[in-house]
């Protein structure tokens, strides 16, 4: 596996980025931490969600460096159990919202590659005429409906935030075959996996969080994932992200979203 490019950028909130990205050994990954608008801090980090994404990031780096990961879905199930056990050592009774994240993970083995998606992260693979993606519109549709409801009912900021956390509680426990990664004792992990046999070299994989995926799914800056991949290969990730930010900054509003822009994390590798 050869790392072609990687990049990350915070969104418009001005907060410390809750996204992470990396590659080590036979793994590459991106992690999208769910924003903590209430700045809850019950865990030893800048916020609860930063504790979670840092813990997952370090675990993937350690496991990947060993080069022995066989199953991405199996690895994430192990990490979910490990983090649940760690969290059990803390008194979290006053935590209003359990931290959670989305992620996309690439596992490279001699005979195949595996891309695993949890939540709204994206994995796209191309090799010759082969083009495959692991993505979902589930979370975007749910947020768009929530935005419309907030406008129609003229909800207050507190009511909007409370409704957001109720949706996250559903995602932690799993709904309609989708979930987020949390380590919650009642959490259910729905990991969607794409397994592709390797026939020589030349596979290119893009992993990204929804902050970059918006360029395809929301803004239509690119007609699809292949066009986004071409732009990332041709211009570099930082240039593509800069174009995305310029579009967001120039827009009067972003339909279907509560935030004008979101954190971005992306990794581009060749297998």
UniProtKB/TrEMBL annotation:
PPM-type phosphatase domain location: 14-233
Pfam family for this entry, one: PP2C_2
Domain of life: Bacteria
Record SUPFAM superfamilies: PP2C-like (SSF81606)
Protein name per the record: PPM-type phosphatase domain-containing protein
């Amino acid at each position: 596996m050869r790392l072609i490019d990687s990049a990350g950028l915070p969104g418009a909130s001005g907060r410390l980025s809750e996204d992470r990205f990396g590659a080590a050994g036979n793994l590459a990954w991106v992690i999208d931490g769910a924003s903590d608008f209430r700045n809850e801090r019950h865990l030893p980090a800048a916020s609860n969600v930063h504790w979670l994404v840092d813990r997952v990031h370090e675990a993937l780096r350690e496991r990947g460096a060993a080069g022995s990961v066989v199953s991405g879905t199996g690895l994430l199930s192990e990490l979910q159990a490990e983090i649940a056990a760690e969290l059990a050592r803390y008194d979290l009774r006053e935590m209003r919202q359990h931290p959670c994240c989305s992620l996309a993970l690439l596992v490279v083995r001699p005979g195949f590659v595996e891309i695993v998606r949890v939540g709204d992260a994206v994995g796209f693979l191309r090799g010759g005429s082969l083009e495959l993606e692991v993505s979902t519109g589930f979370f975007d549709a749910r947020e768009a409906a929530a935005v419309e409801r907030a406008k129609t009912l003229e909800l207050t900021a507190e009511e909007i935030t409370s409704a957001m956390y109720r949706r996250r509680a559903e995602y932690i426990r799993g709904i309609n075959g989708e979930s987020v990664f949390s380590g919650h004792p009642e959490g259910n992990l729905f990991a969607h996996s794409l397994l592709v046999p390797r026939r020589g070299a030349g596979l290119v994989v893009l992993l990204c969080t929804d902050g970059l995926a918006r360029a395809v799914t929301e803004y239509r800056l690119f007609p699809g994932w292949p066009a986004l991949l071409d732009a990332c290969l041709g211009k570099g990730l930082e240039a593509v992200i800069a174009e995305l930010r310029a579009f967001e900054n120039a827009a009067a509003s972003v339909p279907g979203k509560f935030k004008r822009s979101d954190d971005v994390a992306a990794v581009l590798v060749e297998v």
